[in-house]
Amino acid sequence: MRHHILLPTDFSDNAWSAALYALNLYASEPCTFYFSHAWTFLNSGARTHIPQSSIEPVQNKLKEKLAAFKDRAEQESKDRDHTFETIFSEGSVLDCMEVAVKKHNIRLVVMGTKGATGAQEFLYGSNTVTVMNRMRRCPVLLIPSNFEYETPNNMVFPTKFNRFYGEELKFIKEIADLHGSKIEIVHINKKDKLEDKQLENVDMLKTYFKDYNINFNWLTKTRKKEQAITRFIKENNSNILTMINYEHSFVEKLIKEPVIKKMGYHSIIPFLVIPRVD
After folding, report:
1. What is the mean pLDDT of residues 177-182?
2. Highest mean pLDDT among 115-119, 195-199, 218-222, 266-270
């Protein structure tokens, strides 16, 4: 199977780090990577007052940068079954990405985050937060700033066991298959025992992942969830955090609180957000 992967870029070092991660993650897989750039006026009302003759040089310069990113990636993937395309679009980042995902049958979006601010925080850019929370067509893999690739042999999957799992679990399998990753399923205890529905979902996970290296972890709720997950990531040398993004989900609450930045700073690992498949 050939993988189709979208790599949005603003031509920053962060964007290149994310691209490198994607190339290495799928080093042994046949892939087509799409470098995309969404361009728009900062002031949407200004477009009517600027002639096309002034716009074209700006757009052509950005297209040259996009081509240079593509050339650089081709050099990195010389001996791999990787091909590269470029997509230059006009509009918002999310709108342009959704069009590309649908048109090119994209299976995964890989994008960089903003860098650390101060000594204690890791901030996702506004575009990243928007894409993470609103992209419903495919998973999004967020790569921390200047992250150096390491084989993702230990995945962390926090879950409450409250919902029936559907097709979204397939992507956890796909990532695990790439490098034989262990899957650490993490549950933070609120009560002394699970309810019947939760127990049924635990059994479902055991059955679904029966051919995989999985481990169930029961964490006592002695602190906030994000702190418990961060501690688990650090203690177990985990290298990918994955969550399912339900409507009004834990992910959405993390963005609002905002605790994703705390987890991102302390763990410094890629974060895979999988949209709920209804």
Report:
1. 95
2. 195-199
In the chain, the DSSP E strands lie at 3-8, 31-39, 82-90, 108-112, 116-117, 121-122, 140-143, 154-158, 182-189, 214-220, 240-245, 271-275
The whole-number pLDDT of residue 49 equals 61
Distance of CA 31 to the CA centre of its chain: 17
Indicate the DSSP class of residue 149: P
The strand pairing partners of 185, in sequence order, are 157, 216
Question: Rounded distance, CA 120 to CA 16, Å?
Answer: 24
Nearest-angstrom CA–CA distance, 122 and 228: 17
Q: From residue 231, how far is each of 3, 184, 234 by CA, in Å?
A: 33, 14, 5
Answer whether 36's CB lies under 8 Å from 87's CB. Answer: yes
Q: How remote is the C-alpha of 141 from its chain's centroid?
A: 1
From the candidate CATH numbers 3.40.50.150, 3.60.150.10, 3.40.50.620, 3.30.499.10, the one assigned to the domain spanning 3-143: 3.40.50.620
pTM for the full predicted model: 0.85
Residue 161's alpha-carbon distances to 3, 184, 217, 277, in angstroms, are: 30, 14, 12, 16
Region(s) of the chain under CATH 3.40.50.620:
3-143, 154-240
Q: What is the pLDDT of residues 238-250, one digit of tens each?
A: 999 998 887 655 4
**Contact, 23 vs 79, CB < 8 A?**
no
Measured CA to CA in angstroms, residue 215 lies from 25, 167, 169, 270 at distances of 23, 21, 16, 20
